Fold:
Amino acid sequence: MSKVRTIGADVWKHKTDKVSLELFTLMYGSIVSQLCDDFEHDYTKVNQQLDKMGYNIGLRLIEEVLAKTGLPRCHSFRETADAVTRVGFKMFLNITPQLGNWSVDNKQFSIIFPPGTNPLVEFVECYDERARRELWYSNILAGVIRGALEMVQLSCETEFVSDVLQGAAQTELRVKIIKVLEDEVPQGEE
Amino acid sequence: MGVLSIFILSKAGGLIYHKDFGFGLKKLNNSNDYLVIAGTFHSVHALTTRVNPLNTHSSGLLTMEMETCTLHCLQTLTGLKFVVVTDNNQSNVSVVSSTIYEIYSDYVMKNPFYTLDMPIRCHKFDRALNQYISTVE
Structure:
């Protein structure tokens, strides 16, 4: 447990290449705005596309998490959630979002970004009324988490339920774990 | 020369990368034979996870020692296998295999032209791997 807390910070400090936050935020912003143009401001499609892009990133990014941290397999969904926030988010974005709103069966939880902690929305303001209602600006993160968890044999659904850009008090990403893909667990793993 | 050869197996047991290091190593006659070896190794590994007399969990075959060389296997949580063949004097092979995994995550996973589970043809990966292997004592 204590290992999980320090390992993300450790990898972030010593093992990853850094890029300027402004550059990163602006690049992501231009991707989203280009998608809005390409899909003619059909925000449902933009959300889908961002999720798909994220999913394909997640499938690959998980290998880096495992290779650079040497994390063992998680034995409960709470451990998984801890690994996602304290290791995953920490080593790639240098943030540690909060966890909360656990469901009774421990299969659903929320990843919560208090205002000012999500680097993707650093300079973003949303003027268009419809975009404010329909666009999940950071939807790529939902895809990344879904893709990454799928590669460690956890099938899940991820969606944003609130966003500071839409006027909410905090950004909340809901993760529902559907099942463990038993057939895909490599031989010799628990 | 410690490290003789590296195989990378996909989670389905297909050979996605193979490379020999050092001069004058004998090759198999048919490149198809390498695929057969990889597939066979995958099955043997699966078998060894089941033949465990103790009532505990076993992650299966880790090393296979022959008179002249030793084979080391690292299976990742995503099901990839990194198989490293070394001479019998090589120490710290677990560090070698996990470093190869790191190089894989950097140069193969981040190559946008690489399709998952397909044979690896990435020049930067080859170069980084060569460079790393030449530093292994």
Observations:
- Residues 31-50 of chain B form the longest helix (20 residues).
- The first strand of chain B starts at residue 3 and ends at 9.
- Chain B touches chain A at residues 11, 45-46, 48-49, 57-60, 75-80, 98, 101-102, 104-106, 109-110, 116 (CB under 8 Å).
